[in-house]
Amino acid sequence: MSIQLATATELPQHATAVFLLPAGTKELPQDLQDLHEAARQYVAAQLAADSKLITVNHFSHQHYFVVAAEKPTVHLVAEAARKSGHQLHAQLKAAKVTELYVQDLSGHPDSTLALALVEGLALTAYQFEGYKTDEKSKEAAKLTHLHVVGADEKELQELDGVLQGVFLARDLINMPLNKLNAEQFAERMAAAGEEAGFHTEILDLVRIEALRMGGLLAVNQGSPEPPTFTIMEYKPAGATNAKPYVLVGKGVVFDTGGLSLKPTPASMDMMKCDMSGGAAVTGVLYALAKNNVPLHVIGLVPATDNRPGGLAFAPGDVLTMYSGLTVEVLNTDAEGRLILADALAFARKYEPEFVVDIATLTGSAARAIGKEGIVAMGTASEDQMAELKKSGNRVHERVVEFPMWEEYADHIKSDIADINNLGKAEAGAISAGKFLERFAIGYPWVHLDIAGPAYLLAPDSYRGKGGTGTTVRLLYDFLKNRA
Ligand code: BES
Ligand code: ZN
Ligand code: ZN
């Protein structure tokens, strides 16, 4: 269940409300309703003491006051408002608030801060339904209605569409392998398309074999369950682009490492998240379609688990990929690049305007910049990369560009095949990118390695714990600005 967002023309009397105040506020605006003198003095004292979140309990209802932050950029001010939304959520939960009004008195244009606060609140309120049988755990009072005074109805609906996309991605990531294998994942993508309004086609094992997708088939060899390759297409009547944008998402529904088996603690144990890229692609398509963004966008998600069973592919194997290139497998745990390579080569047939792939690809990326950012690299122009970084700053899913210098190509040389899939001990995120580059031919391309931020073992503000849905907000913003 999620929160209903609505605009309100005015704040009703005795409603529980949060007021956003300008940075540096030391006194309350005079016209604030039903604040008796004692409360007024209390708030004034709190403001003077530099409190950023103040609660006044009127017993029948509550008033909260959030002071906008002083930060060097508007984006950082917005991010602080999201975080305030997160902090406010804890207060609302304790007070069992189910309905809240938001009134923006901050003086920022177009209720941007109110919307950021609402975003942080809603993203915090998300909870994975899970599989608990204890009904009591579901009974707790929850925030169900948010009214934003004076907000633009369209903007609020758009935010709602994006949030639904993030929640869909989070749900998919949080589902374990025994609830979401490759076929079930594909069915979920089709269901999302039915609901939001985009077309899906699921290629099954027979079709994947006929296409000779050697990377996807090799990774799937050790699995008792077949792979899928899902094509999502959102093509609205009024699309402003002649050539489609293509998003490719890694859909490894569980990564054991295969015969190059991962150790369990803090490694294999979280690998249900290895389809976070595919989940994000689904979430972005969902949000674009829900919000009728006039852009032709295609999503490609190759999916399988990576297991050591039966006929599992082995270190030393040489694969012939969909593109025709040969790959020497030196480590079966570097499986993501193998399935993405086939999807990237497949993407060419759409003659794309631009291709972005999203993948929990390397521990190296996570070690380099942690959960704080997204590692990017590719062949896109400087302008395109700059636009992506701008979107990253706007939504606070920040993008850091890594180099793709030609010397790194040496890292994936093979004695007996065109390339190897392992790279060296250093620069592992980059050699993975250099591997993908060999298949991302015929269009501008960006690779996003989300191994750091995709899945959190401990809660981090409004990003919560578990699947974060990272890149849904980033790519929605980026694509919307292309339309
Ligand atoms: N799925 C992992 C990468 C990963 C690590 C995702 C941590 C999320 C959190 C990927 O398939 C993998 O195992 N990569 C190897 C590659 C190596 C063998 C070249 C890695 O990063 O260790
Ligand atoms: Zn792996
Ligand atoms: Zn993986």
From TrEMBL:
<dbReference type="GO" id="GO:0005737">
    <property type="term" value="C:cytoplasm"/>
</dbReference>
<dbReference type="GO" id="GO:0006508">
    <property type="term" value="P:proteolysis"/>
</dbReference>
<keyword id="KW-0645">Protease</keyword>
<dbReference type="InterPro" id="IPR000819">
    <property type="entry name" value="Peptidase_M17_C"/>
</dbReference>
<dbReference type="GO" id="GO:0030145">
    <property type="term" value="F:manganese ion binding"/>
</dbReference>
<protein>
    <submittedName>
        <fullName>Leucyl aminopeptidase</fullName>
    </submittedName>
</protein>
<comment type="similarity">
    <text>Belongs to the peptidase M17 family.</text>
</comment>
<dbReference type="InterPro" id="IPR011356">
    <property type="entry name" value="Leucine_aapep/pepB"/>
</dbReference>
<keyword id="KW-0378">Hydrolase</keyword>
<dbReference type="GO" id="GO:0070006">
    <property type="term" value="F:metalloaminopeptidase activity"/>
</dbReference>
<dbReference type="InterPro" id="IPR043472">
    <property type="entry name" value="Macro_dom-like"/>
</dbReference>
<dbReference type="Pfam" id="PF02789">
    <property type="entry name" value="Peptidase_M17_N"/>
</dbReference>
<keyword id="KW-0031">Aminopeptidase</keyword>
<keyword id="KW-0464">Manganese</keyword>
<feature type="domain" description="Cytosol aminopeptidase">
    <location>
        <begin position="331"/>
        <end position="338"/>
    </location>
</feature>
<dbReference type="Pfam" id="PF00883">
    <property type="entry name" value="Peptidase_M17"/>
</dbReference>
<dbReference type="InterPro" id="IPR008283">
    <property type="entry name" value="Peptidase_M17_N"/>
</dbReference>
